[in-house]
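Reopening this one. Same input as before:
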Amino acid sequence: MTRTPENILLAPTPVAWVDYAAEHWRELLADHANCEKKAASTALALMFAYPEDRRLTGALSRLAREELRHFEQVQRMMETLEVPYLRQKPGRYGAGLRAVARTADPGRKLDLLLTGALIEARSCERFRLLVPKLPAALAEFYSQLARSEARHFELYLDLARTSGAPADAAEIDSRLQVLAEREAQLATEPDPAFRFHSGTPA
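Same output, byte for byte:
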């Protein structure tokens, strides 16, 4: 079955999160800048972890550069919209996903790639949900980023299928189910910290 950002996620973003994010878009944009830096860092970390995988390192090198360009675009948007930089503590999302990922190979590589796919899928979904509710300049920007996140999701999922060896299709589906279940909890359950990937505002 062909997977899309929508059908890889086991639960939609709650309406309460979308409404809160639309109202607090300045705080959201500040956290978004951090997300782009973390996305670039994740790609680089995988390159260092698996330097022998030339297909993976080549693809993720290009991805890291694109994520850093997005970071620069977010910074310019913050300047245009007069959004100040906010020093924020990390939310629970990333750590929550890492907690259910395997920490030793051969399974670690597959889980990291599937986690990347889930994060990009959630980003794509939330960009699309936010577009109709945001100021025009930010809405147009997020519409463009939604298309990029869909490509990134496809890249990570393709790498999981081709570079996550020695995993077969059954193992990929099994691990994706485990990780997606945890991702759905983190993205929907009450969350005291509002972030781009947080759950329902508590």
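So the earlier flakiness isn't reproducible anymore. For the record, The two ends are 36 Å apart (CA to CA).
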